[in-house]
Amino acid sequence: MNFAFTSIIIFIILAPGYIYIVAYRTSKLCIRKPASDFIKEISIAIIPAFLAHVLGIFLIEWSSGYRVDFRLLGTLLLGAGQQKGGASESFDLLYAYKYLIGAYIVLLSFGCYGLGHLTRFIVRRLRLDLNYRIFRFSNKWHYIFSGECLGFPDVPDQYNEISFVSIDVLCNVGGHQYIYIGRLLDYHIGLDGELTAVHLKYPKRRKLVDDAVEPLHTFEGNSKYYRIPSRFIIPMGNIINLNINYIGLIEETSSNEDLTDAIEMI
Amino acid sequence: MSKLLSKFFGKSKSKAKLLGEELMADPIIGRALVDISLRHGQGVEPVRVRIKDKVYLMKKLG
Is the distance from CB of B56 to CB of B40 less than 8 angstroms? Predict the structure, then answer.
């Protein structure tokens, strides 16, 4: 049997598994690898494809009573076989059942697409990716910037206590080092999964060298700070390092407590 | 059963996240909260912040 033809048959058989993997990874949690990993991706699809076909064949045989003839598949994959006319008979059967076989593959692929999304939903809902490394998604920056890394085992506090994330970005701009401080709005990653830019909302900046002169913990009226009244994107090429702060807010309901130590804002 | 299903498929945002989004929607409050969080970021002790007629406990996590 022609090697290219066998490859096409194998690809069609693995297609539902591949579609399952693609659906599972279709989210911001996963990094889209370049096409050079295609063979690896196909290899990963073997187990889901096998399980999908087991389920699909079981459903067909259970619902219709039709018995799937694996000799046809074996002949197409491995060659004509020993008996005379094996290949031509297999092709005749393939032609006779082409619509049913096509419908089976298409329906199974649609089912796998839905199952891929459902599996990711269940993994996220049950927090399996946080608790078990094997379920963790490839985009590590999501866990860092969202604060979900607080949900990892042995990390104090909880992800669901976070109200907002503020970030300090140390940058090199025109030979000077600046710290940009603001609320993290978004981030961008490249094809290789590395950070390409961070997106801050209403940031302020100061020169790093000013830290040595005086403490700069007061922002209002401090001439060392320059406020940027908009959303601001910093490309990774300028970034030296990042400091991320996860801040939790809890509304105090008791009105009898002494409020003298509370910082009044507005 | 329906309660369990609605809990499983319902919205996943926590109370703290919703509170943060509500407060951060106001740019003045948002900026002030970031300032306070940085000013007190060195310590681990929670800070009490009064915004209008409500008091919030601000804590650095992790």
Answer: no
